[in-house]
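Researcher: Next sequence.
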Amino acid sequence: MYVGIDVSKEMLDVAMEPTGESWRVRNTMEDIGELATRLASREPILIVFEATGGFEATVAAVLAAAGLPVAVVAPGPGLRAVAGTVGQDRPARRPGARPLR
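Model: Next structure:
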């Protein structure tokens, strides 16, 4: 299972493939901790999100500390490179965090 997270100052939009499941949580320590627990139970292969001016730092730290496989990629070419490694031509954009579809 792959997870994409669209990070903003206040919210995290989370999407999982291949299930298509998606949800939104607040970008707070409490909600990020709950997100880590929820994702750990799903045993993702990779969790990917773009570097977003520092808003991703806490999310990355908490998920990595929980032992989850996290990749923070640069917008643009970095994200396209990740999309290529999982067999997709291009990363997806909004709505939400549809992972690299």
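Model: The longest strand covers residues 11-17. The chain is about 30% helix and 25% strand.
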